[in-house]
Structures are given as structure tokens and as C-alpha cells.
Design brief:
The chain has about 400 residues and is an alpha/beta fold. Helices cover about 35% and strands about 30% of the residues. A hairpin with a 2-residue loop joins strand 4 and strand 5. Helix 1 packs across helix 3. The chain is globular. The structure holds adenosine-5'-triphosphate and magnesium ion.
Length: about 400
């Protein structure tokens, strides 16, 4: 098979599906899709590997499908990292501008970012993104790129993302054992935001909510940068479980019924509508009203959004989301979910899938593919940038080379 050195590959190892996207970078940071593969995810729980062999098999299956479509072999991938072990915190650093002419240089920027990342992290966690929010040169704030500006003092506000070392290492091991190198690990929320949020939304203030199978990920953007992150340990699988219990039907049937007939808002459903529900243990299928299905789904979806509302209020970012909320992830495909979200969060809500893709875009233009598309987009953009060496590489020598490549993402 031909090699894929010019292509970028996104690999999203989710709780319900493993998804691979092979893309060709275009001018201006866009991508053309040349291959995509998906396989049911086994061996993952809430974004974390719990069975390595099963996870490796799922990754291999998804990669083979994508390779077949692209007609070329995958060697490296940009891999998403997610799950309740991922945390974010805001930090700041201050340094004196070093040059005699007091002009801020690239080295000053690296030094101030290194100062900002000097926070106490427990030994079982690693920093894997230091995302600049804005810089201050003396008293001038709100600066995006301070290089070339004149002043005595440079300050950086950053968002630091940390993850469990063992969870990340297990992910890297699974990918390696599937025969693929990890080009870098990328926060899934950051990737999904690249695929679905506009620059205006990131600037004005938006909460992006990715409703997956096992988790619901929240990220708040304001003034062009990440301000807050949270992962709720609940998602579409919980809705399916409620349906299975409520309708006394097997889980795969509950999943099928949810996707085909599910509606998160009971008042949107005509009370005359009926659905056929298979029973467990070989009993006869039953006819039930679709309204009953909605009444099972609605409380769980309301619970997810009330947890999000609490999280936004606790962090005080509920006042920052002037452009509203964007829903994505497979769970966002549920009918009526937008209405529930608008009611719970009291802001405008839109549902989003990746846009502006070239090539075989149809296969990945759904909310469930936002993360994998974002990973490829992120990879394409990073490739186009000149590499920057880390200021303190020694901090990373405990973990494998692949995890260490996180450092390439720092600045
Ligand atoms: N049409 C649909 N209607 C309702 N729910 C859907 C639909 N399509 C997919 N889902 C739900 O979306 C969830 C999977 O979403 P997604 O593919 O984004 O998850 P994942 O990335 O595998 O998981 P996670 O992000 O939690 O690790 C499942 O619970 C599935 O039932
Ligand atoms: Mg996901």
C-alpha cells in the first residue's frame, strides 16, 4: 500500500465508536477527506482504556476500513484524549522582557509560557496543553501576539490542560499496538471546537457541549481562547440504558429505538404515534406509544443539561456565553434536544456538524464526527507551523516518546 506521508490522520477512540479520518491538507488550513473508517469501540469506558486487547482490535478495524477507502497505509495519527481524568485550570506567568531595546522576542514568549506552566501538578498527572489566552505588555492587555512590542514586563494568561499519565499511556500503547505511531495527543474538546465553532463564536463566548456515549464534554471559549473545561460522566449510553429498563427491551434494541424514534421532548410527540418494542426472553413484541418513550428519555436529558447549567454557574462562565451554546457529538442528534437545552440554559442553542470539508465529506458530516474531523484539522494546522522546542523537556522524561510529543503542542 502507498505511504501517507503528506496526509494527516485523526483518530478518535470514543466510548461507543473508534473513528479514523485520513485527510489531505489544503491551503488555508482546510482538509479534503480521502478515507474514513469506524468500528464499534470495545475496551473503553468513559474515554479510558479498560481492556487493551479489545481496544487494539477496534482501532485496527477502524484503521483498516479507512486505509481501504483511501488506498494507502496509515503510519501516524493525531489522537484525541478525553475522559473525566482530563482537567483544565487557568494560570498566569510574568517575566521581564530580556532584550536591551525592550522588544518582546519569541524567546520571551516561550519564557513567559514556561513561567505560566509552573504550577503544582500531582505526580500521576501531566500537563499536555498550555493554551495561551492573552498577553499583557506592561499595562497593555488583550494582546494576541506580543512579539515585536516594546515594554519592560510581559505577562501571559494561559489555560493548562492536564491528564492522568497512566490513562494517556494506555491510549498510546493501544494505538502503537495497532501498528500506528502517535503524532501527538490532542484534547478532544479543542479538536471538536476546531471542526464546528466559528471564529466569532470563539471570540464572543460560546459553550461547546459534546454529548458522547459515556461522557458529556463541556468547553467554554471566550475572546478566542479556552477558558473552562469540564467532563460529566453521563451521555447517550445512559439514555439507552433508561430505555432498556423502562421498556424492558435488550440494550441493542433500546439503542435502535432511541435513534429511530427517540425524542427528548415529550410535548413534541403526537400522542397517537406508536412504536414496536421487542421483548426480552423470546416474548412477543409489543406496541407502545412513542409518547412513553419520550417520557423515559426526557428526564435523563434534562438531568444532563441541569448538570451543565450547574457547572456553568459554579464556574461563573454562564455569564460569558454571549454567543450561546453549540451541541455536537452523537448524542446531539436526538430530536428535541435543542429545545431542552434552550430551556435549561436560557441561551440560544444550535446543533453542529463539521462543515467546509472537501473530498469524501459526506461520510463524516454528522455531529458524531466532529471530534475526528477536528483532530485531522488540528494536525493539518500544526503541520503547517514551524516546530518549537520545549523550554523544559526534562519534565517529560518519565513518559514515552509519544506522550512527550504533547510538548510539541505547547506553544
Ligand atoms: N440519531 C441519533 N439519535 C440519538 N442518539 C444518537 C443518534 N446517533 C447516535 N446517537 C448516540 O450518540 C452516542 C454516541 O455518540 P459519539 O459517537 O459522539 O460517542 P463517542 O465519541 O463514541 O463517546 P465518548 O465521546 O463519550 O467517548 C450514543 O449514545 C448513541 O446512541
Ligand atoms: Mg466522543
Amino acid at each position: 500500500m502507498a505511504r501517507l506521508s503528506t496526509h494527516v490522520v485523526g483518530l478518535d477512540i470514543g466510548t461507543t465508536k473508534v473513528c479514523v479520518l485520513i485527510a489531505e491538507p489544503r491551503e488555508g488550513g482546510a482538509i479534503d477527506v480521502v478515507g474514513c473508517g469506524s468500528a464499534p469501540s470495545r475496551g473503553m469506558r468513559k474515554g479510558v482504556v479498560v481492556n487493551l486487547d479489545a481496544c487494539v482490535a477496534s482501532i485496527k478495524q477502524a484503521i483498516e476500513e479507512a486505509e481501504l477507502m483511501a488506498g494507502a497505509a496509515v503510519e501516524k495519527a493525531w489522537v484525541g484524549v478525553a475522559g473525566p481524568h482530563v482537567r483544565g485550570l487557568n494560570s498566569r506567568g510574568v517575566v521581564a522582557v530580556s532584550g536591551r531595546d525592550h522588544e518582546v522576542s519569541r524567546e520571551d514568549v516561550q519564557r513567559v509560557l514556561s513561567a505560566a506552566r509552573a504550577v503544582n501538578i500531582p505526580p500521576d498527572r501531566e500537563i499536555f496543553h498550555v493554551l495561551p489566552q492573552e498577553y499583557m505588555v506592561d499595562d497593555q492587555d488583550g494582546i494576541h501576539d506580543p512579539v515585536g512590542m516594546t515594554g519592560a514586563k510581559l505577562q501571559a494568561n494561559v489555560h493548562i490542560v492536564t491528564a492522568s499519565v497512566s490513562a494517556a499511556q494506555n491510549l498510546v500503547n493501544s494505538v502503537n499496538r495497532a501498528g500506528v505511531e502517535v503524532e501527538a495527543m490532542v484534547l478532544e474538546q479543542l479538536a471538536a471546537a476546531d471542526a464546528v465553532l466559528s471564529a466569532d463564536e470563539k471570540e464572543m463566548g460560546t459553550a461547546l457541549i459534546d454529548i458522547g456515549g459515556g461522557t458529556t464534554d463541556l468547553v467554554v471559549f471566550e475572546r478566542g481562547a479556552i477558558r473552562h473545561l469540564a467532563v460529566l460522566p453521563t451521555g447517550g449510553e445512559h439514555v439507552t440504558n433508561d430505555i432498556a429498563v423502562g421498556l424492558r427491551t435488550p440494550i441493542p434494541e433500546a439503542e435502535r429505538i432511541k435513534k429511530k424514534h427517540g425524542c427528548a421532548l415529550a410535548s413534541l410527540v403526537d400522542d397517537e404515534e406508536t412504536i414496536e418494542v421487542p421483548s426480552v426472553g423470546g416474548r412477543k413484541a409489543r406496541l407502545l406509544s412513542r409518547q412513553i418513550l419520550s417520557e423515559i428519555i426526557q428526564p435523563r436529558v434534562e438531568e444532563i443539561f441541569s448538570l451543565i447549567a450547574e457547572e456553568l454557574a459554579r464556574s461563573a462562565f454562564d455569564r460569558s456565553i454571549h454567543a450561546g451554546v453549540v451541541l455536537t457529538g452523537g448524542g446531539a442528534m436526538l430530536e428535541g434536544i435543542q429545545e431542552i437545552a434552550e430551556d435549561a440554559l436560557d441561551v440560544p442553542v444550535r446543533r453542529a456538524a463539521p462543515i467546509d470539508l472537501g473530498g469524501l465529506a459526506d461520510s463524516v458530516s454528522t455531529p458524531a464526527h466532529s471530534t475526528v474531523v477536528g483532530l485531522a484539522l488540528y494536525g493539518a494546522r500544526q503541520r503547517a507551523r514551524p516546530p518549537v522546542r520545549p523550554a523544559y523537556p526534562s519534565l517529560f522524561f518519565r513518559v514515552s516518546d509519544a506522550v512527550r510529543t504533547w510538548f510539541g503542542e505547547l506553544f
